[in-house]
Design brief:
Distance between the termini: 31 Å
Radius of gyration: 13 Å
Largest sheet: 5 strands, parallel
Number of strands: 5
Number of helices: 0
Strand order of the largest sheet: 1-2-3-4-5
Strand content: 15-25%
Shape: globular
């Protein structure tokens, strides 16, 4: 993924992997990330927290019990959607301090 530095949107859907792809943190221009039906990922790691241009994050039907702590560093994040994640019990500390967060949608989750 690191070879696509101008990528603005990435959708990872129904992948049979146990971790997010290597190089995700190198996508410095990524504005929208969709993580959907990643049934084998129970820990997102910290790469998401390095996506400094990210404006929208969608986590949909994933079994993880926690979002990456690094989400609290996403200063440009405007929209966070969490759908169908029953194991997710709380948001990482610092999410409430994100100044640009305008939309938080949590549906069918453990929050």
């Amino acid at each position: 993924l690191g070879e696509m530095p101008e990528l603005r949107e990435l959708r990872l859907i129904d992948l049979p992997c146990s971790a997010l792809p290597a190089g995700l943190a190198e996508l410095k221009n990524l504005e929208r990330l969709v993580l959907s039906r990643l049934d084998k990922i129970d820990d997102f790691g910290e790469g998401v927290g390095e996506l400094s241009a990210l404006r929208e994050l969608v986590v949909d039907r994933c079994p993880a019990d926690a979002l990456p702590l690094g989400i609290a560093r996403l200063e440009r994040l405007r929209s966070l959607t969490i759908r169908g994640c029953p194991n997710l019990r709380k948001l990482p500390a610092g999410v409430t301090a994100l100044k640009n967060l305008r939309e938080l949608c949590a549906v069918d989750s453990g929050l």
